[in-house]
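Question (not urgent): is this output format expected?
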Amino acid sequence: MNDRTQYEPVIGLEIHAQLRTRTKIFCGCSTAFGAPPNTQVCPVCLGLPGALPVLNRQAVDYAIKAALALGCDIQPQSIFARKNYFYPDLPKGYQISQYERPLALGGGLEITAGGGKRVGLTRIHMEEDAGKSLHEGFPDSDRRTYIDYNRSGVPLIEIVTEPDLRSAAEASEFFARLRDILVWLGVNDGNMEEGSLRCDANVSVRPVGQRAFGTKTEVKNVNSFRYVQKALEYEIDRQIDVLEGGGRVVQETRLWDSASGRTCSMRTKEEAHDYRYFPEPDLPPLVVDAARLDAVRATMPELPEARRRRFVAAYGLPEYDAGVLTQSPALADYFEQVAAGAVNPKAASNWVMGELLRVLNERGTPIEAVPLAPAALAGLIRLVDAGRISSSIAKDVFAKMYESGRSAEAIVAAEGLAQIDDESALLAIVRDVIAKHRDAVAQYRAGKQATFGFLVGQVMKGSGGKANPKLANQLLRRELEA
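Got this back:
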């Protein structure tokens, strides 16, 4: 077994994120996923002679938005170029991308893995997506490849990191955090299964202490955070085995096969000159002036990390709560409205993270479609805090509110669920419990304190869950010790 601690991985990521525009980057065809093959195409995205591209303004604004969120320097002028290569799903024989003068440079993102670090970005550039080659699902898939050009021309940004990552875990976290930001901004839907967010990883290994990089390989076809980590772990081990065996790592592109848990060679790795880049003659330079930057900046939401920090500082929430509640802007907005109405942020957090998310997850309902208004949940919390209903009754009331749309007040009044605070009424229930459970009473009086919890439960049961817990405890203990 080779000693992996003698080697250091060096990893950089290239993340392709489809932008959530309704139409493609250079034409008016729909970008909707799932349409029948080759039904969302036109002469422009099919690369037919004489068809001219026209840049989608919304795509540029979304790209700027992502770049601002990641702290990049937006370039006042960027250039589209033709990236020449030949593949069945590239109808023009070239891809319109950006190369020497991309939209944005620099920037970075903080991660916590490896003790915490900032991972720098090299660039963010815009380009069009290619079509899709289909290798299975047809009677003759063993002999033919089918092509769907619906995806051809869908707008992409490619986010390229510096080689700052030093483990598969760091790469996985970076990819996850980046996805959260893109989805939060509304510029990408984060759906890796449908291919709207894809990750390629460049990885090499070198002896610990060596400054020069080793020979890198590119791992493609990675469509989940877990697979990013597993693919990199495998590739790091493979390269170390090659070096320890006296071999030489070959610069190549490799595919991740999730079924076998291996990477396999796809082709030798291209260099930039292989693509014969030259400026796209049918598109003028993309100019982003100060006015446009200000207009996009004005649409930027509070970013998830900033909102997490504010939830901790302003509401006194634990870090864990703040992390859960900022999974999406809609969930964070819902919590804030509940907290404002309940005037009890921690209780609001508990109810949103507990009962509300449980029901939403069980039913597969997104937070945007929740039928329970934040003000209604706040009203339920106020009833509990005022002592008018117990916590156990409140859960039943919540379920009825969710189903019926009625307010907590209305349900409690109609069903007589108000908490019993009357001492004489509770005392009668306590004495009845003591009379019916003489063995438990004797055990308690003999020093078995755990029996007290059983007797409290019987009092709550006898009251239909409506007894004031604090008063019930006091009365029961007084009667037992009398």
